[in-house]
Write a structure and sequence with these properties.
Rossmann fold, 2 domains, 10 helices, globular
């Protein structure tokens, strides 16, 4: 592993690990064969870890298609965003809703990028029908295309060694074996219907047990606390060897929804 410098986020994603990515990566073993990350989101940990070989996935189809576009066609991604951004400045907020309607019909990954960069507070939300439903951020114009273009180029260079997979955590990691590392950042157990499917707790525990049987190392970000509220969901002690608590910054979601700034701490589980 060659630890890389932190990049500005190319994809805004709710629950991003950007603030604690360097801390998380500091717990990773130095020598592994392949890095796996099946709950990819905004890819902050993937970017910092910078392994020579990586397999990363997510169940969100337009998200993974966007990562693939950034990897293989960064110039096109930049040009399409610039075109949408210019139309937004000219037409106004109604253009955002036109793009949102189009995205909900065809799932275009470039439209998805535009929405994530211009929606209210950058919160990625889908309704129960799988439709993107966050509103336009009326006091912001969205990131300037010239700024985003540089970020896209930097990320494209960083992820050339990554294989992207559309699928759940089991699909993404099915080729993992001894000598590899799996980093897991599933949705908080208490996160219901905000931007991803609920996690089946019992099935996920069976998956961790399977990783142990296959002698595959994993690092799991799973539970924690916010302010005076404890959200710990204890992982059975036989499934891990060590547990650490790391500072995760202020809760952006809680700040938006409840106008409260509360410090978040997260648990990190290691099975070696």
């Amino acid at each position: 592993m060659t630890k890389a410098k932190k990049l500005m986020p190319v994809i805004k994603w709710t629950g991003s690990k950007r603030s604690q990515a360097e801390t998380i990566v500091s717990y990773f073993p130095e020598n592994i064969n392949t890095y796996y990350e099946p709950f990819l989101g905004g890819g902050s940990v993937m970017g910092i870890a910078n392994f020579k070989k990586a397999v990363c996935g997510d169940i969100c189809k337009p998200l993974i298609e966007l990562w693939e576009e950034i990897k293989t066609r960064p110039n096109d991604v930049s040009k399409i965003y610039e075109g949408n951004w210019n139309k937004l400045q000219k037409i106004g907020y109604t253009y955002y809703y036109d793009v949102r309607d189009q995205f909900n019909k065809n799932g275009d990954p470039n439209k998805f990028l535009f929405l994530t960069r211009t929606c209210c507070n950058g919160l990625i939300r889908f309704n129960k029908n799988g439709e993107f439903n966050n509103s336009f951020h009326v006091t912001r114009k969205g990131i300037n295309p010239k700024t985003l273009n540089k970020i896209i180029d930097e990320w494209s260079s960083r992820i050339q060694n990554v294989k992207f997979i559309i699928g759940d955590y089991r699909e993404t990691t099915k080729t993992a074996k001894k000598g590899d590392l799996v980093y897991l950042d599933p949705p908080y157990f208490y996160n219901k219907d905000r931007y991803s499917s609920d996690l089946n707790y019992e099935e996920f525990l069976k998956f961790l047990e399977d990783l142990n049987k296959r002698e595959i190392k994993y690092v799991l970000s799973f539970d924690g606390s916010r302010g005076d509220k404890n959200y710990n969901i204890e992982i059975p002690s036989n499934l891990y060897k060590r547990k650490f608590t790391i500072k995760a910054g202020n809760s952006s979601v809680n700040n938006v929804l409840n106008q409260k700034k509360e410090m978040v701490f997260e648990s990190l589980y290691l099975n070696w």
